């Protein structure tokens, strides 16, 4: 029809695979179908987008289950990502009166971020959304490990550790700045909330205008920026999910 109408035919067509529910094809007679609105009303739209890009390779068949999505939501979004953001905001408010401390850097985080950006960008360009998100979430885990190792809550007990404490908090905030940009295409609403919480909007502009090529440039958040607490990014799920 396109050729008959004189319209150029597509050079490439992208198609996703079949979606199964708990390993079975969707069927009205077996009542195995599921409405997207049922998922988004429970987990939220951003978590919905994250799950289907993260759990199922683009172009391949995949299976959805409430159990798997609940597990990923809790482990990856609520615990790894959301809790990191909440902990940082709470510590900066408690130890720095809500003001971002002086710019500092950590070589292990800087090099890990540079590698993450390179891997994630290459994967996304190749339509390997799962691989790209995996790289980003691996970096998120590294940042959580950094906070656990440095124990800022212990550093805060001794005034002599003030400089080290502030370095840890800044490095964590800067890592979250990068995570917000990297995950913005996947979870735009959540990452915009985080972006504003970090006080990034005033100096860097909207998160939508950030370039992937600039993400790994360290030290973009301004010392003295106001860091604010936000509502829990990924609330705990009801047990009867």
UniProtKB/TrEMBL annotation:
<dbReference type="InterPro" id="IPR014729">
    <property type="entry name" value="Rossmann-like_a/b/a_fold"/>
</dbReference>
<dbReference type="InterPro" id="IPR023457">
    <property type="entry name" value="Met-tRNA_synth_2"/>
</dbReference>
<keyword id="KW-0547">Nucleotide-binding</keyword>
<dbReference type="InterPro" id="IPR041872">
    <property type="entry name" value="Anticodon_Met"/>
</dbReference>
<feature type="domain" description="Methionyl/Valyl/Leucyl/Isoleucyl-tRNA synthetase anticodon-binding">
    <location>
        <begin position="108"/>
        <end position="210"/>
    </location>
</feature>
<dbReference type="GO" id="GO:0006431">
    <property type="term" value="P:methionyl-tRNA aminoacylation"/>
</dbReference>
<keyword id="KW-0067">ATP-binding</keyword>
<dbReference type="InterPro" id="IPR013155">
    <property type="entry name" value="M/V/L/I-tRNA-synth_anticd-bd"/>
</dbReference>
<protein>
    <submittedName>
        <fullName>Unannotated protein</fullName>
    </submittedName>
</protein>
<dbReference type="InterPro" id="IPR009080">
    <property type="entry name" value="tRNAsynth_Ia_anticodon-bd"/>
</dbReference>
<keyword id="KW-0030">Aminoacyl-tRNA synthetase</keyword>
<dbReference type="GO" id="GO:0004825">
    <property type="term" value="F:methionine-tRNA ligase activity"/>
</dbReference>
<dbReference type="GO" id="GO:0005524">
    <property type="term" value="F:ATP binding"/>
</dbReference>
<dbReference type="Pfam" id="PF08264">
    <property type="entry name" value="Anticodon_1"/>
</dbReference>
<dbReference type="Pfam" id="PF09334">
    <property type="entry name" value="tRNA-synt_1g"/>
</dbReference>
<dbReference type="InterPro" id="IPR015413">
    <property type="entry name" value="Methionyl/Leucyl_tRNA_Synth"/>
</dbReference>
<keyword id="KW-0436">Ligase</keyword>
<keyword id="KW-0648">Protein biosynthesis</keyword>
<feature type="domain" description="Methionyl/Leucyl tRNA synthetase">
    <location>
        <begin position="1"/>
        <end position="88"/>
    </location>
</feature>
